[in-house]
Amino acid sequence: MPRIRKKTSKRGTTHQREKLKHKVSQGRKKAKKQVRKAQAAGTTHKKSKKDPGIPNNFPYKDQILAEVAESRRQAAEEKQQRKAEKRAALTGLDVEDVEDSQKNVNIDENQNDGQGFDGIMSIRPAPPAPSIKKPVEPSTSEPAIPITQGPASLREVLQKADVLLHVVDARDPAAGLSEALFKEARGKDIILLVNKIDCVPRESLASWLSYLRLTYPALPFRVAEAFLPSRPNLPPASKKIPVKLDDALGSDAVWQQLSKAKKSGEELVVALTGVTNSGKSAVINSLARADLLPIYNLNSTISTKGPHTTTTASELVLEFPDKKGVNVRLIDTPGLEYVRAEDVEEQEKEMARARDILLRSRGRIDRLKDPLFAVEHIVSRADTQDLMLAYSLPAFSKGDPTSFLAGMARASGLIKKRGVLDHAGAARIVLRDWSIGKFARYTMPPGSPTTSSSANNEGILAMLKSRKELRKAEDVKLVRLQPGEAEKREVLLDDVWVIDEEVGENEVDEDAGNEEPTGDEDGDGAEQGSDSENSEEENVDDEDEEEVPELLPPPKRKRTVSFAVVPGKGKRQRRFGKNVTQ
């Protein structure tokens, strides 16, 4: 039998070559798409190199393994010591007593030394002690401030209070005002507390203080460092950093204003009101110089427990710093809830809903089913030049959200198949920047009031950054917005506050804004309800859930095949497109 000749050529067919090229191209496209998604979500992971280990022919291998075992033993001893100190601090015992009670817990030095280890890259330093944000020493004999349950409704709070301390956000103070609330509190002392002054330029705060003082006393305020919101996804600190509880800006002016309001020898009752997430609980903690009330934390929005906001009224009694024995009772209240509007057009409902969601900024607003309407509200109020500079976008028409989102999608690499731009993904980037404070915004009051009335706050204003200094910050996008309007809707006064369950990461309350539950054109069933404190966002789906695909151009028309008889011949031949004579 003759030998079969071996194939000498590696040349394949054109189909095989094109098939291989197509696979390589699709693999590269998929890898680039995954990188773009990771960059947009901010979850880039670096692949750690594999530990090569110590070669067996290395002459000092035994010595290195012995050093590694010794370092492990020392790390274990230090960890045990830290546990003992922490347990002693919690129980109030001495460290020596805890060590005596744990003498039976020893570390065997010869146990598993060097076993299962063949490298030096796996050496890790001892884990740092958990950072405690409250630097409260248990040895200090300061009595704890008791917190009691407050009134059941807003009307009862107003009837009990002598002073109304209304907290507004310095980024848009007018939007936090309520005409119905001030009308109900007529006859009481009303003080406006402009909180979060570290988020706005110096010029904006000075103008707003002058404008607000035309009607009510207005005081600037910034909570203590211990109660400032922390940025999510920050690396943990390598060592414990002491956090201050007594460095609030404007607390002295608040106490002075409250002392002026106290006229009789009875206890002064002060009620703190404002919209959700305006910082009422953090203000009370800063005045008390202690961590008493739970506050909203940005990091809690990405945890399983969800963000925390006040749901019921709480009372606590503090003492005036300069008057011993003179007390003031502070009442912390939930966010204001407004009456649902019935006879309002759909467009006005949509605008009110977007305004409420952005003003409260509670939860993962970047996970809305339809984030476009919220970004449309931002673009309609934002300065076009500031948006272009903040996100390095090409020029677009003023108030045109479609052009803005198209530029954002191109700049972020959010391009789908066939060149379709992902407007929803670009809108989620803007909403996330808004939620975490990276989208720094400020407003200016209507008109140009004089700044003479803010001369007594020159010390606080000097500590703030100017507009030019904030623009130079690397992680801040400073954008000027048109000022909001004072809320004219009626406030729910007689509704009883109840304790609601905490909202998880992928859950928000069904009611959001000021709309009735309606179905949209796509049938996604987004529900819209009242403006309660726990109703600022609509239902959201998981991150991996696909959105409704956009309409693509129609496919190309296939070429038709016709069969015709050639004249003069009886045979039928295949012709493509039209008959061809031979």
Automatic annotation (TrEMBL):
Residues 14-89 form the Guanine nucleotide-binding protein-like 3 N-terminal domain. It is found in: Nucleus. One of its GO terms (cellular component) is nucleolus. Its main location: nucleus. One of its GO terms (molecular function) is GTP binding. Residues 1-93, 503-582 are annotated as: Disordered. Residues 1-36, 569-582 have a biased composition (Basic residues). It holds the Pfam family GN3L_Grn1. Keywords: GTP-binding, Hydrolase, Nucleotide-binding, Nucleus. Residues 69-88 have a biased composition (Basic and acidic residues). It comes from the Eukaryota. Residues 503-525, 533-549 have a biased composition (Acidic residues). Residues 270-358 form the G domain. PANTHER family: GTP-BINDING PROTEIN-RELATED, GUANINE NUCLEOTIDE-BINDING PROTEIN-LIKE 3 HOMOLOG. This is P-loop containing nucleoside triphosphate hydrolase protein. It comes from Suillus fuscotomentosus. The lineage of its organism: Eukaryota, Fungi, Dikarya, Basidiomycota, Agaricomycotina.
